[in-house]
Design a protein that fits this description.
The complex is a heterodimer of chains A (123) and B (186). Chain A has 2 domains: 71 residues; 40 residues, no CATH class. With 123 residues, chain A is mostly helical. Chain B is mainly alpha-helical. Chain B folds into 2 domains: 102 residues, Orthogonal Bundle (Rna Polymerase Sigma Factor, Chain: A); 84 residues, Orthogonal Bundle (Arc Repressor Mutant, subunit A). The relative contact order of chain B is 0.10. The chains are: A mainly alpha (123), B mainly alpha (186).
Chain lengths: 123, 186
């Protein structure tokens, strides 16, 4: 990694210290270190595969158990958000104002207003 | 040696990095083989302890193995490995007293050339520096990184890096003055 630079001096480097650092370097080419790293790397990969497998196996019964309550919750939330704020009956204008006349649209408009205020105050 | 390993030994590094990023264990093994000297020497200079240095070097390569898939430009691997090594050292320094296991040298001690080996003398002198100063000095002299690169790798301000290197260099010069005196006598 150092071989390309070939002792760059400057930036206040002392050439004698540079030389000493260079002389203190050892060439490590032993297989034992590489073998240990590879053994740990393989173990890491095996552990990751096992965790993934356990996650998939655990996800199946979790999905089976939780799907019905999640579905009920989503339906209840949808019913609440679609609720009209003002009852306009079945007049001709009702479909026109329907997109704005709901709890969901009120919440969305309030969130946008808060975000705009936050941007103006803190951005 | 398996045939693929022989081929990898002759292959350019960016190609090996790309293959390792795709999960090729033989390619990664070749990377470890090529870069082990640099990483182990860097950690040795930072820790002053060969066994601890090898443990940290292993950690550097394991981090590399975990994240090499995220490296989009194989040509940037050397800089990326340097950053991984620095991060591993910083994590270790935060968790532990970075001077534990290193040789203690009192202020004012001078190291005489030839008493031990250049590497041991250098480690003893480096052990007298505070951790951030030592990190900056080792990155400047061993890794031969510029001040800007060190500032970026360590997240220290550029001025602090310069001052650490200046202070560390002065300290090492003073501690190792026996080496230069021996040279002058010869």
């Amino acid at each position: 990694m150092n071989e390309k630079r070939n002792f760059p001096l400057g930036e206040g480097r002392d050439p004698r210290l540079m030389q000493l650092f260079h002389e203190s370097e050892h060439t490590h080419d032993d297989d034992a270190f590489v073998d240990v790293v590879m053994m740990r790397a393989r173990k890491l990969r095996r552990r990751r595969s096992i965790v993934l497998l356990i996650g998939c196996v655990a996800a199946l019964p979790a999905a089976w158990v939780l799907s019905a309550p999640f579905n009920d919750l989503a339906q209840a939330l949808h019913g609440f958000v679609a609720q009209p704020i003002v009852d306009v009956g079945s007049s001709i204008g009702a479909p026109l104002i329907a997109p704005l006349n709901s709890v969901g649209s009120a919440v969305a408009i309030a969130a946008l207003g808060l975000y705009a205020a936050y941007r103006r105050l803190f951005a | 040696m398996a045939p693929t390993k022989g081929v990898y030994a002759r292959s350019p590094e960016p190609l090996i990095v790309r293959l390792a990023g795709r999960g090729d264990e033989d390619a990664f093994e070749e990377l470890v083989r090529r870069r082990q000297s640099w990483v182990r020497n860097l950690m040795r200079r930072l820790t002053g302890n060969a066994a601890l240095a090898d443990d940290l070097a292993q950690e550097v390569f394991l981090q590399t193995w975990r994240k090499i898939r995220q490296l989009n430009h194989p040509a940037r691997f050397p800089g990326w490995l340097k950053q991984t090594a620095v991060n591993t050292w910083l994590q270790h320094a935060r968790r532990n007293d970075p001077l534990s296991g290193s040789v203690e040298v009192q202020d004012g001690d001078r190291i005489t050339a030839g008493a031990t080996g250049a590497d041991i003398d250098l480690d003893r002198a480096l052990a007298t520096l505070e951790e951030p100063v030592r990190l900056c000095v080792v990155l400047a002299y061993h890794a031969q990184m510029s001040h800007g690169e060190i500032a970026e790798a360590t997240a220290l301000p550029l001025g602090t890096v310069k001052s650490h290197i200046r202070r560390g260099t002065d300290r090492l010069r003073s501690m190792l003055s026996g080496y230069w005196a021996a040279d002058e006598v010869c």
